[in-house]
């Protein structure tokens, strides 16, 4: 029987989510999902951007034909990141990267 993993959102407190939302507010979407929809290329791009930035915005294009809730959840699961926020067709993902220098790393507030 496969092991049931907790949902990634369970790892952030509401205070940490608020902190990340504030950091994400001025950011522009780094990845856009267009009419080709979900592809391995999109997932690879999201993973690469998360490695570089830890916190990114992803936009679902109007012509993609994708449902925003399932798409944002699927991208978060496939990139092993945390879905921080979904507003309209833009969602925010966070994934800690310990290989980034300490000065550039996002420091989450305690609980």
Explain the layout of strands and helices:
Blueprint: H1 14-24, E1 31-33, H2 40-53, E2 55-60, H3 68-78, E3 82-87, E4 90-94
Parallel strand pairs: 1-2
Antiparallel strand pairs: 2-4, 3-4
What does this 3D model show about the protein?
The protein starts with 13 loop residues before the first helix and ends in a 17-residue tail after the last strand. It has one domain: 2-Layer Sandwich (Translation Initiation Factor IF3). A hairpin with a 2-residue loop joins strand 3 and strand 4. The radius of gyration is 14 Å and the shape is globular. It is of the alpha+beta class and 111 residues long. It contains 3 helices and 4 strands. It has a 4-stranded mixed sheet, sandwiched between helices.
């Amino acid at each position: 029987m496969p092991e049931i993993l907790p949902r990634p959102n369970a790892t952030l407190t509401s205070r940490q989510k608020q902190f990340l939302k504030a950091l994400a507010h001025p950011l522009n979407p780094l990845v856009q999902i267009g009419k080709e929809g979900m592809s391995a290329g999109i997932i690879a791009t999201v993973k690469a951007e998360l490695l570089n930035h830890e916190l990114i915005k992803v936009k679902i294009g109007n012509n993609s034909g994708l449902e925003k809730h399932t798409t944002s959840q699927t991208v978060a699961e496939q990139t092993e990141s945390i879905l921080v926020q979904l507003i309209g067709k833009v969602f925010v993902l966070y994934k800690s990267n310990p290989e980034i220098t300490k000065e550039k790393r996002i420091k989450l507030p305690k609980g």
